[in-house]
Amino acid sequence: MTAQSASFIAKATIKSADLEHRRKIRFNIGKYNATVPQGKKQFEDLEKARQLAKQAKWKAIEHLDQYLLQFEEKITSKGAEVIWATDSNEALEAIGKICKEANCSTVVKSKSMVTEEIHLNHYLEKNGIESVETDLGEYIQQLDGEPPYHIVTPAMHKSKEDVARLFAQKLGTPSGLSPEELTLVARKKLRQKYLDAQVGITGANFILPDIGGIAITENEGNGRLSCAWPPVHIVVVGIEKVIPSVHDLALFWPLLSTYGTGQRVTVYNSVITGPRQAGEGHGPSKMYVILLDNGRTNLLKDPIKREALYCIRCGACLNACPVYKNIGGHSYETTYSGPIGKVITPHLRGMDDFKHLSQASSLCGNCTEVCPVKINLHELLLENRHEAVQNGLSSLGERMAWKMWQTASLHRSMMNAGNGRVKNWVVNKVFKGWTTHRADLDFSEKTFNEWWKANRS
């Protein structure tokens, strides 16, 4: 057992027994479940829309090299600079260099999971640069010193009372403020930061190669302020975020909003094609787009697992997952939690250290059922398990146990041998690893084969 898997099991064990934590998660996911069906009504044929989206992402990923080069050519012609980053270190070095050239002391950031992936805030703080999260959920998490809990709703595990106590502790506000009052406090604090910042950093929901642009989807307007107000705009985006054309946004924007929050469409949807042009009065004077690999090509080279790169980060699979709803986002100790995180993290950060995530699944298939781009998530989890075994990453005890199980399963006489009590003792007492975090198996006194022989006459 690796240190990562031991930590995961320990945290998951604690969180799954925390009934208050589970109550908050179920309450917030319950609200999500109530709104999503309403959002889906906007589609005349939802299954066709999902299939078209999957086909568009298939096309984008299968021709990713061509689309990325087309994007670079188009957006650089408008004055932006594209930087290719193999890993997080290269991305951070590039951002550090840009900030140094801009004499930057303050950065404003809109919500971006990829900047969490490279631990950007820690890097900027280490280099004496204030980095301010401007998304309300991310701002709450930053105040509390925690990473995001969820891909879409970073502070899902906090109640309004938790946030009120946090603001009172960190910002000196009166205790017991309402959500509306808390939002106004955050707004007042953040408005000045936009004016102070020399650099604004955003992610991108989609890369648009045909026009040389990026699309940003948000609900608070902080993304627009982060990319339009400071004189320098940096976009950090994973290379998989490509869709073939700007015209595909008419499909992807409603799908992302419906499956992400239940909305018909999010409040602010922006397409950015470069820095301020001649004759324009507003916008950044410089724009940089950092295209991040950071392990994504490990998935790309696999013809089966590259399907995971279709993900549009809506978070629907997290909300549907029975494991996530019981252990929460922080137990995973990864940037991307839930089913999609369990699929991609072993390839982004190493199968040896993170293969345990693919085991943390009931394989119920609910994640696949709710995915707007129809990624076969539960099948990809099985593929990860298979790869780990093929690469010799399973323990000797595990291999012996499954070999014995296989042998017994292939021989009817062994399956029929012994009564239920004997089988229960063998499985529940000898193979203790199986029942450590599961209920005991309870075999019937007779197998179906034995029952059939005795009763078919």
Give a description of the structure.
The protein has 457 residues and is of the alpha/beta class. It is 54% helix and 10% strand. The chain has 25 helices and nine strands. It has helices at 3-16, 19-40, 46-62, 64-76, 88-101, 113-117, 120-126, 136-143, 160-171, 179-196, 222-228, 249-261, 296-300, 316-320, 322-327, 338-349, 351-354, 356-359, 366-370, 377-390, 396-409, 412-416, 420-430, 432-435, 448-455, and strands spanning 81-85, 106-109, 130-133, 199-202, 206-208, 213-218, 232-238, 268-272, 286-292. The strands form two sheets. It has a six-stranded parallel beta sheet, with helices on both faces. A three-stranded antiparallel beta sheet has the order 5-6-8, sandwiched between helices. A hairpin with a 4-residue loop joins strand 5 (206-208) and strand 6. Helix 16 runs parallel beside helix 20 (377-390). The mean pLDDT is 94.
* Count of separate structural domains: 3
| Corresponding CATH architecture of the largest domain | 3-Layer(aba) Sandwich
The average pLDDT score comes to: 94
* Main sheet characteristics: 6 strands, parallel
Cα-based radius of gyration, to the nearest Å: 25 Å
CATH class type of the largest domain: Alpha Beta
What proportion strand? Answer: 5-15%
What CATH calls the topology of the largest domain is Rossmann fold
Low-confidence stretches: none
Helices, by number, come to 25
Query: CATH homologous superfamily of the largest domain - what is it?
Result: NagB/RpiA/CoA transferase-like
State the end-to-end distance.
51 Å
Major sheet: order of its strands? 1-9-7-4-2-3
Structural class computed from helices and strand pairing: alpha/beta
Instruction: Determine the fraction of residues in helical runs and give it as a percent range.
Output: 40-55%
Principal-axis shape: globular
Please give the number of β-strands: 9
